[in-house]
Design a protein that fits this description.
Radius of gyration: 16 Å
Number of helices: 6
Strand order of the largest sheet: 3-2-1-4-5-7-6
Keywords: Methyltransferase, Phosphoprotein, S-adenosyl-L-methionine, Transferase
Structural class: alpha/beta
GO molecular function, one term: methyltransferase activity
Strand content: 25-35%
Number of strands: 7
InterPro entries: SAM-dependent_MTases_sf, TPMT
Largest sheet: 7 strands, mixed
Protein name: Methyltransferase domain-containing protein
Length: 197
């Protein structure tokens, strides 16, 4: 990516309109599905930022979760998500900038959003997720545990880089190599479950 390119709403809208969505795996993330199968509170308020086509949200709704909010900065992404989901009644679709969004959630699901924001905003992400969570709320999902050979997005990193960003706001229940990544990402992801302090 060129240095002068801003990862703003215009950038992401262009990517969606041009169908440059290489991050889209076409189905819900395996690690998130596996984790949520054991999550019993169907009334939990759940946020999926940078939702894209909202596969995880659609799976959650099909599994009986009733209060799901998906958020994306691209209007085209939101339209695409609305067109793809089969269980939209339980899903609140929001087109907004994550960093200026307000709400309160029990759970935030991280799936290829953290890696799409500029590296310089990662500390803002940690703080903002904490602000959006209720006391003892959870941030759950996957982060890349690798570097990329090209300038992002996506942007890579490692556990050693990520830990200091989150430790101010969270206690760590899981922060380890993901054992059930999709095949093309095997060995290159961390599964995280962080609890708001």
């Amino acid at each position: 990516m060129e240095e002068n390119v801003k990862l703003d709403a215009e950038y992401w809208e262009h990517r969606w309109q041009a169908r440059q969505t290489g991050w889209d795996i076409g189905y819900p993330s395996r690690p998130i599905v596996q984790y949520m199968k054991g999550y019993s509170n169907k009334e939990a308020h759940i946020l999926v930022p940078g939702c894209g086509n909202a596969y995880e949200a659609d799976w959650l709704a099909a599994a009986g979760f009733m209060n799901i909010t998906v958020l994306d900065i691209s209007p085209t992404a939101i339209v695409s998500a609305k067109n793809k989901v089969q269980h939209g009644a339980a899903i609140n679709f929001v087109c907004a900038d994550f960093f200026s969004y307000h709400g309160q959630f029990d759970l935030i699901i991280e799936q290829t959003f953290f890696c799409a924001i500029p590296i310089g905003r990662r500390s803002d992400y940690a703080r903002k997720t904490s602000e959006l969570l209720v006391a003892d709320g959870h941030l759950v999902g996957v982060l890349f545990d690798r570097e990329f050979s090209y300038s992002g997005p996506p942007f890579g990193g490692s556990a050693l880089e990520y830990e200091p960003l989150f430790k101010t706001y969270y206690t760590f229940e899981h922060f380890e190599t993901c054992y059930n990544s999709i095949d093309t990402r095997a060995g290159t992801e961390l599964f995280i479950k962080l609890v708001k302090r």
